[in-house]
Structures are given as C-alpha cells and as structure tokens.
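Our example pasted here:


***
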Amino acid sequence: MTTDDSAPMQRGDGGDGAAFRSCFGSFATGVAIASCRAGAEDPGTAITINSLTSVSLDPALALFCLEDTSGTMESFLRAGHFALNILAAHQQDISNRYARDHTVVAGDFGASWQSGAPILNGALAVADCVLHDVHGGGDHRILVGRVVETGWRSGGAPLLYYRGTYGSIGDSAS
C-alpha cells in the first residue's frame, strides 16, 4: 500500500484533541500491557498501553505514560515496579480486556520475575522494571522504569495499532 502524495494534507489546530489524535493515530505503534502488583494480597493491575519507549541503555531505562485520572495510577506508584509486556499479534483479545478492566486475571499471567510484577503469558517480549522516576506530562504522568530483566521470543509477529484498528506484520525471527 502506498500513500497518495497528491492528496491534500488535512490540517488542524494543535489544541484540537480530535486533530491531535488523527495526526498521531497515523503513527503505527506496538501494543503492550503494563502490569504491577502492590503486595502479596493484591491480584495485580494491568492496563493496555501504546506509549512505550526505550529511553537509555546505560542505565537501561524504559517509559510508559498513564493518564492522571487513570484508576491504575495509584497501584503503579504504590507497587514501585512494573512489567512492560509487548503483545503478539494473536493477543488482540488481551489488549481489549485490559483496555476496559484493569484487574489481573490469574490465567493471563504467570510467575513474576525480579521486580514482582505479573508477567503476561504468551507475550512477545517483556521488560521487567523497578520504578525509577515519575514526570508530569500535561494530563498524563510519565513513568520511567529501570529495566532489571528482559525476555523475548525468537519468532512471532507483534500486535500493532494504527488509526484506531489493530494490525500485524508477518512473523519475524530475530
């Protein structure tokens, strides 16, 4: 598929939320689940995200963003750790579940790693993190984690999100 370069560029004011979403919805992203557990009695919290970025190699840092009003914010701050579970193409149902309901379902997650955060079964890759810093970012908070352990599968296709729909690319081995 190619872009029609002759089509006029749609434009909108930077403060217009719909125009902002249309612009950045054109940037295809991967889909992940951020998960945490604030103590032994806590079943865990998980939320679908696509604001995932590696920040630094030394030290190894990664970040994701949460809306200030998210009901999950307190859980992530109290836990002091999180796992960034990168979804495989076949995990669209998991993405939809944790976009709506943020309580960890035991069958979806396996054993925790170093940080204590729940690790998603079948994830394409995982970064296990200890909370390193929190920054303000408009109506969101930027949670930066120091990566203490990573894991990945040598094959598989990622789940992608583009202009409000899911997609994937072919299986790739790395």
User: Anything to note?
Assistant: The radius of gyration is 17 Å. The mean pLDDT is 92.
